[in-house]
Amino acid sequence: MVERFTLLTSGKITFGAGAAESVGNEAAALGRKAFIVADRHFRERGGAAEMVQNSCAKAGVEPIMFDSPPAGEPDLDTVERARHALGSARCDVAIALGGGSILDTAKAAAGLAREAGHVREYFDGRPVGSAGIPFIAMPTTAGSGAEATVNAVLSDPSRQIKQSIRDNRFLARVILADPRLTLSCPPRTTADSGMDALAQAIESFTSLGANPMTDALAFEAAQLILHSLVPAYRDGQNLDARSDMLLGSLMAGIALTNARLGAIHGLAHPLGIRWHIPHGRICAILLAPVMRFNESVAGAKYARLSDLAGENIIGHVERLRDMLDIPADLKEYHITADEVEWVVKESLPSGSLKMNPRPARAEDLRAILAPLV
Ligand SMILES: [Fe+2]
């Protein structure tokens, strides 16, 4: 008999080419004034951000554009600024157009819209007391899966901490996943964020929190990503490959927010904040070593993934990393033995690490990192 489980998803998901154009009507069903957080890349004249504004205006929703979206990963100050901007303009719906950083900025600002405290307090563990304003997610990379998750990954550079604020009410009310929005994603980001999506599919597939629904989503996500990542990297205009990547990363996002992740994501946050390594690149480098560590307990699921890949999945993941021109280790960052200890110490309390299928202690993390640094 299947053990009891719960699955949380967004209220509505529209997937496919052209899905983005319904944003105005979706916003009109939720409010009258929309706070828009858009990636700089889409804010040039005639870009997708202008389409979002026009679509809102046409549907009778006043668009208010956030003028300082994060250039890199979102920090607490940026989220606080966004929260104040949407509050002082009295916006009643938020729209995010961008990759994981943009989505998480808008998600946190919307989710904390009616809270009294500073975002730092919730980052430090204060529970979110009230529902925020509804949030519409329009991902432009494939991807973090952030359009589908209940958490916003934020960083506090002053304390070198990267962690999540999490509340089930943070789920996007509507996801508009339009593969055309991903056509302009540059090859480097396509490769890195695609390997993040693959790592998320594989970690949620083998997580201690996996259930039959997340298994179905994670397995299908892995299949889509394994077959479409290299084609999307080599030809960014390949809409079929872009579509499969976006669908795969969305499915992995739903899987991970319910099943949680594993040791790759436990280690990735301290490495990312201290050495400024793109998150997807760290995931790509850690994927095979962590899979090798987990193989003794996750062998049956890895066998299913090997069937998909047509060869041993761990070897395949390494080949994929090479084809995407991602290095095999972290040596270029010159991480010292003392710094490895810091990474291990910072990783141990991580929620992701606790869901790794094989318990990972400090000495295990040290052994995973040793050949990589
Ligand atoms: Fe990730």
Characterization of this structure:
It is a single chain. With 373 residues, the chain is α/β, with parallel strands linked by helices. It folds into 2 domains: 170 residues, Rossmann fold (3-Layer(aba) Sandwich); 187 residues, Dehydroquinate synthase-like, alpha domain (Up-down Bundle), CATH 1.20.1090.10. 51% of the residues lie in helices and 11% in strands. It has 14 helices and 8 strands. The protein has a 6-stranded parallel sheet with strand order 1-8-5-4-2-3, sandwiched between helices. Helix 2 links the parallel strand 2 and strand 3. The longest helix has 31 residues. The protein is globular and about 55 Å long. The protein starts with 11 loop residues before the first strand and ends with a helix. The structure holds fe (ii) ion. Fe (ii) ion binds next to helix 6 and helix 10.
In a few lines, what is going on in this structure?
Helices cover 51% and strands 11% of the residues. With 373 residues, the chain is of the alpha/beta class. The strands form two sheets. The protein has a six-stranded parallel β-sheet, with helices on both faces.
Give the secondary structure arrangement, pairings included.
Blueprint: E1 12-15, H1 23-28, E2 33-38, H2 48-58, E3 62-65, H3 76-88, E4 93-98, H4 100-111, H5 119-123, E5 135-139, E6 151-156, E7 161-166, E8 174-177, H6 187-206, H7 212-234, H8 239-259, H9 263-275, H10 279-309, H11 313-323, H12 337-347, H13 351-354, H14 362-369
Parallel strand pairs: 1-8, 2-3, 2-4, 4-5, 5-8
Antiparallel strand pairs: 6-7
Helix pairs in contact: 3-4, 6-7, 6-8, 6-10, 7-8, 9-10, 9-12, 10-11, 12-14
This protein binds fe (ii) ion.
